[in-house]
Amino acid sequence: MNTSKTAKSSAVLLFLFFISAVAYSQVTVAPVAIHIGETNKNGYMLIRNNSTNADWEVSIEMKFGYPQSDTAGNTYIYFPETEKADDPSAVKWISFFPRKFILKPLEEQTVRIAAKPPKDLKDGEYWGRPIIYSHALNAVDTTNKEQIEVGLSVQFQTVIALNYRKGKSSTGINLTSFEGKYENDKIILSAGVKREGICAYIGSMNAKIFNDKNEAVKELKQEIAIYYTLERRIEFDVTGLSKGQYYAEIEFNTNREEPGGVIIKGNSITKKIPVTIN
């Protein structure tokens, strides 16, 4: 059996389940990214029960994981089955207080996050993915017309990001590939990127389609997090655009604010290529 392929498939299914959980669970978590470090080893997250008639039990654990992409350009959170000695993992020395609790309807709980890294920790950035498990305790939770019965043992999972930084912080990005093609009334762009430096590249991706007059006719902006390498696939529906020469442009930058902490500034990179609609 191909264990790496099995682990990847499991991670994809797990990530899809996380997305589903966010849509149906009554428990919400903020912020979705936490950045702490040697000057401030403490953080927090606010967990809220949005149900009006059910108690929810919440528990927290953390695993080592980071964003990856498959050959089609779909992004998911990859959780290795085992951690390697050189993995920049913060899992063993991050604690949560409280780690397990019950939230009454519309109740909130502030969870304190404390880092106790080893004294010989090398400079760099260390990662973890706090996973917040939640399930309803009442017989039926009918908030937002959802019915969740205890007998089904439905448990929801919400995953957020946590980064711990020590020493000088640096990040950057290289664009390793950028291609575009027209197919079935769509312009399809594929971009490969690789992180440089010792910190994850947290920022934004902007993609645009220009006509021959240099006017932007299509635009898409997405938040990105590049921990190692990533492949992005962007599709523009260009139904109705005239045949002819167009240009596709992609830009990556760190010009983004994040409630969970300071984003490390890195280089910006932009590239434009021709694409023909025929």
Topology, element by element:
Layout: H1 3-24, E1 27-30, E2 33-37, E3 42-49, E4 56-63, E5 66-69, E6 75-78, E7 94-97, E8 100-103, E9 108-115, E10 124-136, E11 140-141, E12 148-149, E13 156-159, E14 161-166, E15 171-183, E16 186-197, E17 201-210, E18 216-226, E19 229-237, E20 244-253, E21 269-277
Parallel strand pairs: 2-14
Antiparallel strand pairs: 1-3, 3-9, 4-8, 4-10, 5-6, 7-9, 10-13, 10-14, 11-12, 15-16, 16-19, 17-18, 17-20, 20-21
Descriptive notes:
- By secondary structure, this protein is mainly beta.
- It has two domains: about 5-165, Immunoglobulin-like (Sandwich), CATH 2.60.40; about 170-275, Intracellular proteinase inhibitor BsuPI (Immunoglobulin-like, Sandwich), CATH 2.60.40.
- It is about 10% helix and about 55% strand.
- The protein has one helix at about 5-25; strands spanning about 25-30, 35, 40-50, 55-65, 65-70, 75-80, 95, 100-105, 110-115, 125-135, 140, 150, 155-160, 160-165, 170-185, 185-195, 200-210, 215-225, 230-235, 245-255, 270-275.
- The strands form six sheets. Strands 2, 4, 8, 10, 13 and 14 form a six-stranded mixed sheet that branches. Strands 1-3-9-7 form a four-stranded antiparallel sheet, with no helix packed on it. A four-stranded antiparallel sheet has the order 18-17-20-21, with no helix packed on it.
- A hairpin with a 2-residue loop joins strand 15 and strand 16.
